[in-house]
């Protein structure tokens, strides 16, 4: 624009230019506002019970943490279209109204963590936040996440969900989060890691699942996690983890599996073999059972240490379901590995072990054989004490409903192992080419058959007879 020569014209131009400037934004009471490096409204630790209504519309960062806010209204930030950072953590927020974050298409970081009364979230709470890269939802008392809550959040890279009460996650919860890098799920109450729980997380770098209650990881749970570098599963209730489950983790560098109750027999062989190929860093895997391996690192065992169980699908051991008079926790595992040669079991008995169906072992042809020696064991049967053990709601019925503490608090000494320390040095019983007669099987293994007489394969209630 050409400069005005005359003084009067120059003054008129200056007045017109000042009128064209936007009016200075006011700053809410109890807040501090500044424009560098970004336009910021700082209202933290001011004892606020509600979100200020005079927030400047051009604000890029709003800090409202450590107040006494209870509700995030649908119009609280509706005019702040330039907002990139919003901190609402450490308040008393219990409700986020529908549309509370509508119009915040430029928002990059949202922190609503440490609001212990925020126990539910609307499925559409984060709709439209397509540029959000960091979301804090830790320590909110959440027990579940609604279906589709993260839908459309394609830019999200960091998701903090730790220190909640999450029991399970819907399949496909993270399906749209292809760019997610860090997922923090530790210190929740997750019991099962399902096949499709982490589907879609193709760029995940770090997965923290420690300090949950995980008893089982399904075989395809890590299929999508080819880029994962860090996996933490320590201090859970795991007893078995297969090598097939771990195979997709081709980029894994840091693995933590300590603080679990590992069963170190044939069920651990595939994991042991996987560790032979694993080149990254790993914690120790302390064996709990059998007793003669208790305290040893699974990775350092020899191949012959992992023998001694029947090569059939094994039922999980309930390590903490009941207590005997001797003070040891009873195991519900049926110790078939070295006690009864496979040839001594009838076809019906073999099928019952394979299927794992809940039925009386005595309802089979072996019952008649056992009756042949009933007189011999009559006195022993009168001294038996019966105990009932209730199983939890896990798919394998493995843990007591009353068990809330992690397994690491219990010592291996309190676990009744399925194999004695002398079992490994005894010569393994093998089937002869000529099938044994019924009388020979009963004579050689009468005490074990008597034990089977009082066991029900554990799926619901288990009755144990303790001599």
Walkthrough of the structure:
This protein is an alpha/beta fold and 467 residues long. Helix content is 14%, strand content 13%. The protein has a domain at 342-423 and 435-466. Helix 5 (366-372) crosses helix 7 (438-453). The N and C termini lie far apart (104 Å). The model is unreliable at 1-6, 17-24 and 310-467 (pLDDT under 50).
Give the biggest sheet. 12 strands, mixed
- Please give the oligomerization state of what you see: single chain
**Number of helices in the DSSP assignment:** 7
Strand content: 5-15%
Q: Give the neighbour order of strands across the main sheet.
A: 1-2-3-5-7-8-9-10-12-14-15-17
Broad shape: elongated
Mean pLDDT, to the nearest integer, reads 73
Radius of gyration: 32 Å
Distance between the termini: 104 Å
- List SSEs in N-to-C order: HEEEEEEEEEEEEEEHEEHEEHHHEHE
Structural class comes to alpha/beta
Provide the helix percentage: 10-25%
Instruction: Find the count of extended strands (DSSP E, 2+ residues).
Output: 20
| Low-confidence parts | 1-6, 17-24, 310-467
